[in-house]
Design goal:
Blueprint lengths: L2 E6 L6 H8 L4 E7 L2 H8 L5 E5 L5 H8 L4 E4 L6 H10 L3 E4 L5 H4 L2 H7 L2 E3 L8 H15 L3 E13 L16 H7 L4 E5 L2 E5 L9 E3 L7 E5 L6 H4 L7 E9 L2 H10 L17 H9 L6 H11 L5 H14 L13 H12 L8 E12 L5 E11 L7 H18 L7 E3 L4 H15 L4 E4 L1
Parallel strand pairs: 1-2, 1-4, 2-3, 4-5, 5-6, 6-15, 7-12
Antiparallel strand pairs: 7-13, 8-9, 10-11, 11-12, 13-14, 14-16
Helix pairs in contact: 1-15, 3-4, 7-16, 11-12, 15-16
């Protein structure tokens, strides 16, 4: 019997998912995107794939598109997942996303159970592969009578070092807007038995050097609410629990100045609705008396904080590289955040032949029953293939495809909202990723 998969989205990470599922015997994959040409490009010319145009905000069109499918994979922006899931539940279609379980998704748990479908989430890289190895190590330690007294997990999707050749040391392997919006989130975590909260405006200031390998110079900062992982990972004994983001040295200082100057605001402004010169838009954003370079520099000086003169010089050169002092017209998006995103996306794409890079590491502080202690790490260090998949696509799209295959094969009997947070759910995905696709975290005791 032919099984049918509807994949929504045509973004950076979808290609491995399509390729792996299309290679399954008796599986057909339909790629749906608002723009048919994008869907056709992702679907390729395999006999088992096809493409359609679909706007998920069109309720009737979405319901009609879902009819007859066994699984829908939602790789569109997370704000649409609940809409897709609700429609799929009505059609008794299983659902898979790589995104965090949101309150809107959680609210669909009972409906999914009544419909007898699984609503599987958090199976990409982070969240995803991180869960697989956190659950593995924690389960092993608990079964051996030990305690997890601290848990640190940091992940970064970055350009390979030789491709980190711009003022931010960063290039986009996923939504630029998503990258910048994440920099405004508050961070909440456990540290030495106390909950620490970092306000979004102070997130970049909280970044600290983080050592993984001597060959890399990373900074790390908290990512959203880590406190929930005491419960989710079943480690109530842990005194420190923190999940966060890795960036190269220099990134956070640069972003901090962007924050100081108002670039991360998505509040509408009239002057960014027309293609005026960047220097004129910049002058209005920061309240400069004119768009002359001298006035712009003086106003920046009055509003921004720099670590030192060397750092200031580097960041101002970066602003010139971005064209903020130039006559180059903005791509008007109506607010500072999205207008900046347009420029960043134009200047900070991967060039042909360049590689991206993923670093993910867990660090477990372990205390054994006899009082001895141990530090254990699980580390994924992966580079993209310029002639194949990017590392981000591989490490998000492959776990997604493996989980989708297990759902199609009827392996998971659970219904309702599910995330990979138990050995029963994690182990088959983790083992398949390692044995079939060579994707694994290397475990060491320090």
């Amino acid at each position: 019997m032919v099984q049918k998969v509807l994949l929504l989205g045509s973004g950076f990470v979808a290609k491995p998912t399509v390729d792996i599922l299309a290679a399954r015997p008796d599986t057909e994959v339909t790629v749906a995107c608002r723009t048919l040409a994008k869907a056709e490009e992702l679907a390729g010319d395999a006999a088992t794939t096809k493409a359609i145009s679909l706007d998920v905000t069109d309720e009737k069109a979405l319901a009609a598109a879902l009819a007859g499918y066994d699984l829908v994979i939602s790789l569109i922006p997370y704000i649409y997942h609940a809409t897709v899931a609700a429609a799929a539940i009505k059609q008794k279609v299983n659902i898979l996303t790589t995104s965090y379980v949101s309150p809107a998704i959680k609210a669909l748990d009972e409906d999914a159970k009544k419909a007898g479908v699984i609503l599987f989430n958090e199976i990409g890289l982070d969240p995803g592969i991180d869960h697989l190895y956190a659950v593995k190590a924690i389960d092993e330690v608990h079964k051996a009578g030990g305690k997890i007294v601290s848990f640190l997990s940091f992940c970064g999707g970055l350009p390979a070092p030789e491709a980190s050749d711009n003022p931010l040391g960063y290039k986009f392997s996923w939504s630029s807007r998503g990258v910048l919006l994440a920099l405004r989130n508050n961070a909440l975590f456990w540290e030495n038995g106390k909950i620490v909260e970092i306000q979004g405006k102070d997130l970049m200031k909280s970044a600290k050097p983080y050592f993984i390998y001597p060959g890399y110079s990373f900074l790390a900062y908290g990512n959203r609410d880590s406190t929930v992982y005491k419960d989710l990972y079943k480690i109530p004994e842990a005194q420190t629990v923190m999940r966060g983001t890795l960036r190269y040295q220099g990134f956070t200082d640069f972003v901090l100045v962007l924050v100081d100057l108002g670039f991360l605001s998505d509040a509408p402004v009239e002057y960014m609705t027309k293609p005026i010169a960047w220097k004129d838009a910049f002058a209005q954003l920061i309240g400069s008396p004119s768009s002359s370079e001298a006035d712009l520099l003086a106003t920046i000086d009055s509003k921004a904080t720099f670590k030192d003169e060397e750092d200031k010089s580097r960041i101002l050169k970066g602003f010139k590289w971005l064209g903020l002092f130039s006559d180059t017209p903005i791509t008007p998006k109506g607010n500072p955040l999205d207008t900046l995103c347009s420029t960043l996306e134009e200047l900070m794409q991967y060039e042909p032949g360049e590689r991206d890079f993923v670093m993910l590491q867990h660090k477990f502080g372990i205390e054994w029953a006899d009082g001895t202690t141990e530090t254990r790490t699980s580390t994924l260090c992966d580079y993209g293939d310029p002639n194949g998949y990017s590392s981000m696509a591989k490490t998000v799209g492959t776990p997604c495809a493996v989980a989708a295959s297990l759902i199609l094969d009827g392996f998971y009997k659970q219904t309702g909202v599910v995330a990979p947070l138990t050995p029963e759910i994690c182990d088959p995905i983790r083992i398949t990723l390692q044995e079939k696709y060579g994707i694994s975290m290397i475990e060491k005791t320090l």
